[in-house]
Amino acid sequence: MDDFVRKPYRFNEIYECMTKQLGVQYTYANMHAEEEVTDVALTAQMLAVLPQDLRSQLRDALESLESERIIAVIGQVASYDSKLHKMLSLLAGNFDYPAILKALQTNQPENIT
Fold first, then answer.
1. Whole-number pLDDT of residue 81
2. Tens of pLDDT, residues 59-105
3. What's the rounded Cα separation, in Å, for the pair 98 and 86?
4. What's the alpha-carbon Rg for the chain, to the nearest Å?
5. How far apart are CA 20 and CA 64, in angstroms?
6. Cα–Cα distance, 66 to 82 (Å, whole number)
7. Which pLDDT tens digit goes with each residue over 5-45?
């Protein structure tokens, strides 16, 4: 064994491993559009523009791991913030659900008992 990639897989890690092992280089289309979105980390403040109900739906969809459900909920985000929609779509497309969940959990109001 020469190398490995851990789950959850991220496309860039797979391509970097293949580049290292096989010596190939990849040319990416639309790279500039993705760079604009990925230069900024997702924060709870970014998600604050969404109604609480939509944030709950997003959290539930991510926890269910149902990709169609996740895509449907993220699609609703576009009407609130197009840049946030692109960022969430990119993260979900790379299966980086933990990054979205972390921002959602930070954004939850404190439970008073």
1. 93
2. 999 999 999 999 999 999 999 999 999 999 999 988 889 999 999 98
3. 17
4. 16
5. 34
6. 23
7. 888 777 778 888 888 888 887 766 655 544 544 556 888 89
**Residue 9 half-sphere exposure, CB side, CA atoms within 13 Å?**
7
Which element (helix H / strand E) includes 82? helix 82-93
If phi > 0 it is left, if psi is from -120 to 50 it is alpha, else beta; for residue 59 that is alpha
* Cβ neighbours, 10 Å, residue 55: 20
Distance CA(60)–CA(54), nearest Å, equals 10
- CB count within 10 Å of CB 52 equals 11
What is the rounded distance in angstroms from the CA atom of residue 71 to the CA atom of residue 36?
21
Q: What is the pLDDT of residue 9?
A: 75
